[in-house]
Amino acid sequence: MVNINTVYQRVLTIANKEQRGYITPQEFNILANQAQMDIFEQYFYDINQFLRLSGNDTIASDPLDMLEEKVSIFEKFNQTVTMGSAGAGTIPSESYRLMNLIKVDAKGNVDIQHINKKELNKYQNSKLTAPTLTRPFYITTSENGIQIFPNTITSNVTCNYVAKPATVRWGYAMINNEALYNPSNSTNFELHESEESDLVIKILALAGIVIKDPQLYQIAAGADSAKQQLEKQ
């Protein structure tokens, strides 16, 4: 977890030092959520890139382990899938990436295989791959919707997934026309604590774009470049 007030104060300190003006709480909250999501989504891109280096374990193992540790913060297990009629289900809206789907049964849990829509007819029309209660599969029908086959499965389905980061908020109270931090109505970043500096840099970069201040963006980009060089040493 990264404290949102710490990040906001660092952003304000750098912006004020460079005489780039004041970033309001409302502006900061918008930029903070964008920055958090950018960093979060980058994890999956980076993991994919490192997996391509799997032939050289000494190069990929350490950074890959760290990325997987950062993602593990958001992993949720044994979450209920809301089932309707005829095998239609809805996974929790906070899900970002579904890991697997499970049919819970007293005789033993059964993994439900994911297939693409274009493969549906092929699977259903073959005696070897047609869905059964011991070999079910599902397709994705919408962002949070699934369809399970055979469609007689209408209950006792759970899922494991990577959740989206919660929306962050720097909460405040107006005292003498000044916004003062209020931790009771604030929400911190869920990202790994090591991401604090990256959040500051990325928020400053986004602020530079929003307020059309190329120098603020360049300051943030320069700090980001310097950080990357240090990490390579």
Descriptive labels:
233 residues; single chain; 21% strand; alpha+beta; eight-stranded mixed β-sheet; 2 domains; 6 helices; two-stranded antiparallel ribbon
Written overview of the protein:
The structure is a single chain. Strand 9 (172-175) and strand 10 (178-181) form a beta hairpin. 21% of the residues are buried. Helix 2 packs antiparallel against helix 3 and helix 2 crosses helix 5. This protein has helices spanning 4-17, 25-51, 57-72, 120-124, 196-210, 214-232, and strands spanning 75-80, 82-83, 88-90, 95-103, 110-114, 137-140, 145-149, 157-163, 172-175, 178-181. With 233 residues, the protein is an alpha+beta fold. The chain has six helices and ten strands. The chain is elongated and about 70 Å long. The model has no long low-confidence stretch (mean pLDDT 88). It has two domains: 4-39 and 165-232, no CATH class; 75-163, no CATH class. Strands 1-8-4-5-6-7-3-2 form an eight-stranded mixed β-sheet, with no helix packed on it. A two-stranded antiparallel ribbon has the order 9-10.
Short description:
The chain has 233 residues and is α+β, with helices and mostly antiparallel strands. The chain has 6 helices and 10 strands, in the order αααβββββαβββββαα.
Q: Low-confidence spans: pLDDT under 50, at least 5 residues?
A: none
- The total number of structural domains is 2
Give the biggest sheet: 8 strands, mixed
Instruction: State the end-to-end CA separation.
Output: 26 Å
How helical, in percent, are the residues? 40-55%
Q: What class, by secondary structure content? A: alpha+beta
Strand fraction:
15-25%
Coarse morphology: elongated
The quaternary state of the protein chains shown equals single chain
Main-sheet strand order equals 1-8-4-5-6-7-3-2
Number of strands: 10
Give me the number of helical elements: 6
Q: Mind telling me the C-alpha Rg?
A: 23 Å
Mean pLDDT: 88
Order of helices and strands: HHHEEEEEHEEEEEHH
